[in-house]
Amino acid sequence: MENPVLLSSTVELAKQNLKDSKPTQNSNHQHIHWAPLGVPLERRLQMLTMIIWNLMIPICLGIFIYAACFPTLWPLLIAYVTFIYLDKVPERGGRRFAWMRNLGFWRYFTGYFPAKLVKEHELDPSKNYVFGYHPHGIISMGALSNFATEATGFSKTFPGIVPSLLTLSSNFRIPIYRDIIMGLGIASVSRKSCEYILSSGAGRSIVIVIGGAAESLAARPGINDLVLKRRLGFVRIAIKQQARLVPVFSFGENDLYDQLDNAKGSPVWKFQKKMQALLGFTLPLFHARGVFNYDTGLMPFRHPIVTVVGKPIDVPKLEEGQIEPTQEQLEAVQKEYIDELLEIYNKYKDVYAKDRKRDLCLID
């Protein structure tokens, strides 16, 4: 366990990032602050990796469409599309490759913010775990940095634990992109996928971004509004699979982007909720900084992300003949989970969330 006073040095080291990336509240937003020409090469490479990742889906689709322009490649493309349709690996933990998780690319990617992993408690590698990640943010950059790459040292910090970050099944229908994220150990968030991974051996664990699309609509700098009150599915899976629950809170996740005002009941909010109902995901109308300026664009602000992994919570065993946990069991475990999550937040908020506008709030 690390001392919060000592850990505060992370924030001090990142002050330069905040100075030259995120305008203050009193800034004149009509004036664009351009990046200087003499930016160090390290920071240029960090920006390059962020651009590549943010454009990864268009790049992959572009390569696939370009390949389709050549008739000689059609048999190969037809075979690949058929393979995508029949492939069940996204439901079975993905095709994880250690070399992909250890690529130097990710060192620059996580250094952009920078991202850091903090351990609160040892995890027994003979057990299985369900990590609940909060908050969702706009794109969950902290979850990607800490659980889908080794840039912040997850395997060294928690030896023997093999995490699979989970995402929507629709992502595995995108050519090429699907193979990249599976190589990072990312898998489908379906119930079948969760059960398969948790039953596939000691140490196998899943990481679920609990708040989902609904929470992303509330993601704004200085605010941590969580959608958690009615989320019991992850608790049910943990009890049925006898996996311990681990709350995870990422300070700084919501500070990476701002978004267009979408107050409940507004036309923007109604459009976003309708999109969520139809497609299973929604699109926050976000904005942050640009590649060459600090005021407008779609690149995230350079703000530290500190991901704190909390104490594991034991779940009750099902009685003989009991197939599903009772409502009382679900609510009791959820309460314990929320209490531990709040303990993490309250312990570190004055270290990593000094610029917060208000404290963590459960909005739904």
Automatic annotation (TrEMBL):
Keywords on record: Acyltransferase, Endoplasmic reticulum, Glycerol metabolism, Lipid biosynthesis, Lipid metabolism, Membrane, Transferase, Transmembrane, Transmembrane helix
Q: Which top EC class is given? A: transferase
Query: What catalytic activity does the UniProt entry give for this protein?
Result: an acyl-CoA + a 1,2-diacyl-sn-glycerol = a triacyl-sn-glycerol + CoA
> Among its keywords, does the record have Repressor?
no
EC number from the UniProt entry: 2.3.1.20
Show the Pfam families listed in the entry: DAGAT (PF03982)
Q: Which chain regions cross the lipid bilayer?
A: 55-86
Q: Which CDD domains match?
A: LPLAT_MGAT-like (cd07987)
Q: In which pathway does it act?
A: Lipid metabolism; Glycerolipid metabolism; triacylglycerol biosynthesis
Tell whether Lipid biosynthesis is among the UniProt keywords: yes
Query: What does the UniProt entry say about where the protein is found?
Result: Endoplasmic reticulum membrane
Membrane protein topology class: Multi-pass membrane protein
Instruction: Report the domain of life of the source organism.
Output: Eukaryota
- GO MF terms, alphabetically ordered: acyltransferase activity
Checking PANTHER family in the record gives: ACYLTRANSFERASE (PTHR12317:SF0), DIACYLGLYCEROL O-ACYLTRANSFERASE (PTHR12317)
Query: In UniProt terms, what function does this protein have?
Result: Catalyzes the terminal and only committed step in triacylglycerol synthesis by using diacylglycerol and fatty acyl CoA as substrates.
Q: Which family does it belong to?
A: Belongs to the diacylglycerol acyltransferase family.
Give the protein name, as stated in the record: Diacylglycerol O-acyltransferase
Report the source organism.
Answer: Phycomyces blakesleeanus
